[in-house]
Each structure stands twice: as structure tokens, then as C-alpha cells.
Amino acid sequence: MQVALSSFLTAQPVTIHLIFMAAAVSILPLVLVFVFLQRRLVQFWKCADSDQGLTEEQD
């Protein structure tokens, strides 16, 4: 995808709106995966934190 973005940048007329749309479309799958897996990621982090005893110890 970076090659496609760089070809937009090297084109004669600079079309910022097309560059922005290409960047937005290229990051969209990552954002969608994070949105759908967000709840499971938080549950995993909470479970891992409580299993390993990563809480701060007080004197």
C-alpha cells in the first residue's frame, strides 16, 4: 500500500484528498479488527494481570 501512496505523491499535480483517502482506506482493516476484538483484548489483559500478580505491593 505504501507504493501506491508514494505514486500519488510523485504524480505531477498533488492531490491531497486522494492521498488522505488512500491512507484512510489502508488503515481501515486494522481499525475494524481492533473494534471487534477490543472487548476480548481488555479481558485478556485483565486476566493476565490478575494471574501473574502484577499489582503493586505496599510496605
List the helices and strands and how they pair.
Blueprint: H1 2-9, H2 16-52
Helix pairs in contact: 1-2
Report on the structure:
With 59 residues, this protein is mainly α. 76% of the residues lie in helices and 0% in strands. The chain contains 2 helices and no strands. The mean pLDDT is 77.
Note the main attributes of this structure.
single chain; 59 residues; mainly alpha; 0% strand
Structure described in brief:
The chain has 59 residues and is mostly helical.
> From the structure provided, what is the oligomeric state, counting identical versus distinct chains?
single chain
Mean pLDDT: 77
Number of strands: 0
Give helix % range.
over 70%
Given the structure, what is the number of helices?
A: 2
Poorly predicted segments: none
Indicate the radius of gyration in whole angstroms: 21 Å
How far do the termini sit from each other? 53 Å
Major sheet size, sense and barrel closure = none
Find the structural class using helix and strand composition. Answer: mainly alpha
The topology string of helices and strands comes to HH
Shape: rod-shaped
Q: Into which percentage range does the β-strand content fall? A: under 5%
